[in-house]
């Protein structure tokens, strides 16, 4: 038997209570109302709620008190907070404390309806075994990966912006996809965007779309990434590569939840969740002035740090078997015991992506159905000593010394990827443009 969802509304403004209650009742929902923290706790003790909407400023406390009470005693109930216009600090504080989402005053009824519809699809908190990799294919049973999947299960129940950090090739996009497919927006689109691969002159049209005739070559209306991700998740990979001019426009779109196509006179409302990622340190970029502090705080509400492959060596045999099975085709290839052992000793500067490259190369060169250790073609990673001269003397000209180190690293990466510059850039965790500049500067053909 289906039951009507029940919503608890907590606010000390009677007019706003009336407006939200009328809106929710028209949606076919049952509502209860409370004007204070104490009244909210009394209602929560008497009935089960599918969602709580609470103002941040209440006479006998604030929305965080309601949020903490629900988190401790009714964890299956999502909470959305209502904040004063422009008070993003309160919103961020609430999201970090576990709020599902937030609304700004004056409350826009279309945003209220969208939030409620999304919240009512939030999955129950899972108390089961988190060792399963599906959905999202984050393989591994190491302690690090079990903790990552447990964090993702929690993050999937909110709409809080998540910033995923970690080395290149460590699985940041897989983590973002898992957050999406486990959350309330699983039925919506997941739109990944590599911010470092878009020319600066095209960024605005790519993100926000354009109207026919807006510029030469605009022969038809086109949607941007924001519109394409409407109802789902927009994944901003390598967000650190965004130029400052685009950071300003992105910040406004995220704050207002509205975008305007190039050549349009009206803004369009978009309902998206933002997940961002980069292998670079955004906090350091903020200090250096190359990344906006306000956008940083907007994106980095909750941080998820992906471990490197070196930090979860126990997962390497499982990952290797999965990658071989993925690329096997009609052949039945397996790893010899000594090959598995050797794989667990390698440093993997390119993480899982590099492991896959190593295995693909070994499979192509293997003569039989068993990959031996010698066929992996691995050599120990060179260690760069902080003191280049064991005698303690200085290396001479510092720039020449750094150039020699950089030239050596670039050459080795090109050799390892068979001079595939795109793969070499990925392996080193830099953009293709950055790699090309470095090669030209050092005169490497």
What report would you give on this structure?
With 445 residues, the chain is an alpha/beta fold. It folds into four domains: 114 residues, Response regulator (Rossmann fold, 3-Layer(aba) Sandwich); 163 residues, P-loop containing nucleotide triphosphate hydrolases (Rossmann fold); 74 residues, Helicase, Ruva Protein, domain 3 (Orthogonal Bundle), CATH 1.10.8.60; 57 residues, Arc Repressor Mutant, subunit A (Orthogonal Bundle). Helix content is 42%, strand content 13%. The chain contains 18 helices and 16 strands. The chain has a five-stranded parallel β-sheet with strand order 2-1-3-6-7, with helices on both faces. Strands 9-10-13-8-14 form a five-stranded parallel β-sheet. Helix 2 packs parallel to helix 3. The termini are far apart.
List keywords for this structure.
single chain, 445 residues, alpha/beta, Rossmann fold, Helicase, Ruva Protein, domain 3, 4 domains, 5-stranded parallel sheet, 18 helices, 16 strands
Helix content: 40-55%
CATH fold description of the largest domain = Rossmann fold
How many independent structural domains?
Answer: 4
Q: How many E strands?
A: 16
Morphology: globular
CATH architecture of the largest domain: 3-Layer(aba) Sandwich
Characterize the quaternary organization of these chains.
single chain
From the alpha carbons, calculate the radius of gyration and give it in angstroms.
26 Å
Major sheet characteristics? 5 strands, parallel
Name the poorly predicted regions: 126-133, 382-392
């Amino acid at each position: 038997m289906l039951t009507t969802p029940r919503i608890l509304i907590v606010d000390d403004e009677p007019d706003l209570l009336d407006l939200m209650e009328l809106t929710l009742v028209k949606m076919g929902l049952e509502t209860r109302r409370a004007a204070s923290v104490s009244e909210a706790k009394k209602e929560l003790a008497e009935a089960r709620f599918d969602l709580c909407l609470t103002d941040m400023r209440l006479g006998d406390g604030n929305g965080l008190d309601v949020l903490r009470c629900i988190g401790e005693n009714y964890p299956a109930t999502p909470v959305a907070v209502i904040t004063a216009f422009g008070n993003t600090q309160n919103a961020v504080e609430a999201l970090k404390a576990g709020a599902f989402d937030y609304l700004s005053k004056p409350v826009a009824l279309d945003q209220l309806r969208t939030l409620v519809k999304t919240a009512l699809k939030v999955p129950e908190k899972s108390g089961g075994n988190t060792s399963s990799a599906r959905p999202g294919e984050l393989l591994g049973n190491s302690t690090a990966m079990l903790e990552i999947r447990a964090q993702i299960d929690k993050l999937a129940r909110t709409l809080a912006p998540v910033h995923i950090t970690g080395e290149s090739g460590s699985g940041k996009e897989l983590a973002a996809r898992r957050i999406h497919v486990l959350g309330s927006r699983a039925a919506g689109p997941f739109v990944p965007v590599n911010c470092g691969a878009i020319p600066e002159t095209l960024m605005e049209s790519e993100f926000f779309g354009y109207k026919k005739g807006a510029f030469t070559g605009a022969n038809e209306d086109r949607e941007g990434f924001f519109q394409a991700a409407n109802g789902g998740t927009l994944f901003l990979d390598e967000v650190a590569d965004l130029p400052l001019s685009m950071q300003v426009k992105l910040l406004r779109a995220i704050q207002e939840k509205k975008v305007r196509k190039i050549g349009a006179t009206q803004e369009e409302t978009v309902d998206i969740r933002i997940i961002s990622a980069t292998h670079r340190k955004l906090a350091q970029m903020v200090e250096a002035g190359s990344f906006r502090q306000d956008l940083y705080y907007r994106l980095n509400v909750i941080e998820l740090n992906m471990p490197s492959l070196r930090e979860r060596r126990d997962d390497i045999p499982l990952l290797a078997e999965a990658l071989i099975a993925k690329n096997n085709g009609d052949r039945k290839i397996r790893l010899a015991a000594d090959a598995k052992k050797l794989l667990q000793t390698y440093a993997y500067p390119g993480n899982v992506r590099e492991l896959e490259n190593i295995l693909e190369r070994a499979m192509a060169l293997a003569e039989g159905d068993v990959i031996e250790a010698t066929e992996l073609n691995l050599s120990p990673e060179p260690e760069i000593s902080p003191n280049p001269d064991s005698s303690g003397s200085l290396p001479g000209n510092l720039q020449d010394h750094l150039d020699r180190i950089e030239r050596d690293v670039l050459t080795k990466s090109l050799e390892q990827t068979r001079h595939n510059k795109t793969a070499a850039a990925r392996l080193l965790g830099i953009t293709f443009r950055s790699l090309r500049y470095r090669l030209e500067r050092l005169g490497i053909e």
